[in-house]
Write a structure and sequence with these properties.
The chain is built from two helices and seven strands. It is of the alpha/beta class. It is globular, with a radius of gyration of 14 Å.
Length: 152
């Protein structure tokens, strides 16, 4: 595993990175089966089967180098950490992709711009998504949204 390349969010404490309690929520709300992680959020890697990123911060046997929106493979679960915060356009495309390619999508989203979040520009709440989350856990700085897609 090559870890020489440092990824901007790998070591951030909560709320910038997921807490141990957040990891438990991801684990408890997922269903049995294969799990894809969009990106390579360090604390979520151990509870996923594969990680997908166009420019991952590490090399490993479970890393798929690919744009998230190009995913056409089906997974029981897809996880994301901050991926819906990047832009409104990307949020829309990711929700469309996951609605076709998983049964459960769980994503942690920031509620507003935090000081160290240089690239995040989109801060949707649970009522702003084009596909309404099945469940949301709202915290001060971030929320965890869970979508359960019945059509798969």
């Amino acid at each position: 595993m090559n870890v020489n390349k440092e990824y901007w969010s790998t070591e951030f404490p909560s709320p910038y990175g997921p807490s141990e309690d957040d990891v438990i929520i991801f684990s408890e709300k997922s269903i049995p089966g294969k799990t894809l992680l969009l990106g390579c959020t360090k604390k979520l890697i151990p509870i996923t089967d594969v990680q997908m990123d166009i420019d991952p911060w590490y090399d490993g046997p479970n890393v798929i180098i690919k744009d998230w929106l190009d995913n056409t493979d089906f997974y029981e679960n897809i996880f994301g950490d901050g991926v819906l915060n990047l832009t409104k356009e990307l949020e829309q495309c990711i929700l469309e992709m996951v609605s076709k390619n998983c049964k459960v999508f769980i994503c942690r989203c920031f509620n507003y711009k935090l000081e160290k979040l240089r690239i995040a520009t989109n801060f949707p709440n649970k009522d702003n998504f084009s596909i309404t989350p099945t469940e949301s856990k709202i915290f001060d700085d971030y929320s965890i949204h869970i979508w359960k897609f019945q059509n798969n």
